[in-house]
User: Which sequence fits this backbone?
C-alpha cells in the first residue's frame, strides 16, 4: 500500500488556465457539465442521471484530509474563459505511482484543454510519482491522443465498469515513466 503523504495541492499554471484545488462554489458548473450523458459516459464513476447531492459529495471528498485522490479544477477565468472547464485528477496507488484522470465539459471539447491540462499536471508531477497510469474507453480515441500527446505509452487492453453506461467497457491502458 502507498504511504499517504498529505500536502496542500499546488496551483499549477498552464498557458490558457490554471489548475487549482476544487472549491464548494464549483458545484453548479460541475453538476451542469457532469449531468451531460456524453461526459458521464466517458468516465468510470460519474452516474447518469446525476443524483441530487452527488456533485457536492464529490467536492467534499476532494477537499477532505486523508483523501487518496487530488482533484484540480481547470479554471480559465483569468483568461476570460469559464471558471470551470473540467477537472484533472491524480489518485495515489502503490508507492510512487498515481493514476491520472480527467474530463472536460462538452462545450469545450476539441479545443485542446484536456491536452494542455494533462501536460501541465504531468510536468508539475505534484505526487512526485515515478510512474503515472491512465486508461480511456476504446470508443474515445480523442482521449487516447490526449495521453499520447503527453508522452504516455500504450500498455494494453482491459475493461472497466462505467456507472453511467451500467456495463463493462473495453479500455486502453497507458503508462508514463517520470524522470
Assistant:
Amino acid at each position: 500500500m502507498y504511504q499517504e503523504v498529505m500536502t496542500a495541492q499546488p496551483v499549477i499554471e498552464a498557458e490558457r488556465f490554471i489548475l487549482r484545488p476544487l472549491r464548494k462554489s464549483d458545484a453548479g458548473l460541475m453538476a451542469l457539465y457532469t449531468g451531460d450523458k456524453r461526459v458521464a459516459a466517458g468516465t468510470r464513476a460519474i452516474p447518469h442521471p446525476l443524483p441530487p447531492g452527488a456533485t457536492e459529495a464529490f467536492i467534499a471528498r476532494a477537499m477532505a484530509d486523508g483523501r487518496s485522490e487530488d482533484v484540480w479544477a481547470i479554471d480559465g477565468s483569468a483568461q476570460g474563459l469559464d471558471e470551470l472547464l473540467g477537472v484533472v485528477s491524480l489518485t495515489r496507488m502503490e508507492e510512487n505511482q498515481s493514476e491520472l484522470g480527467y474530463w472536460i465539459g462538452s462545450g469545450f471539447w476539441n479545443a485542446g484543454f484536456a491536452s494542455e491540462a494533462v501536460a501541465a499536471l504531468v510536468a508539475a508531477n505534484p505526487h512526485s510519482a515515478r510512474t503515472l497510469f491512465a486508461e480511456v474507453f476504446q470508443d474515445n480515441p480523442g482521449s487516447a491522443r490526449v495521453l499520447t500527446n503527453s508522452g504516455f505509452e500504450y500498455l494494453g487492453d482491459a475493461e472497466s465498469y462505467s456507472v453511467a453506461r451500467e456495463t463493462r467497457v473495453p479500455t486502453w491502458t497507458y503508462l508514463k515513466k517520470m524522470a
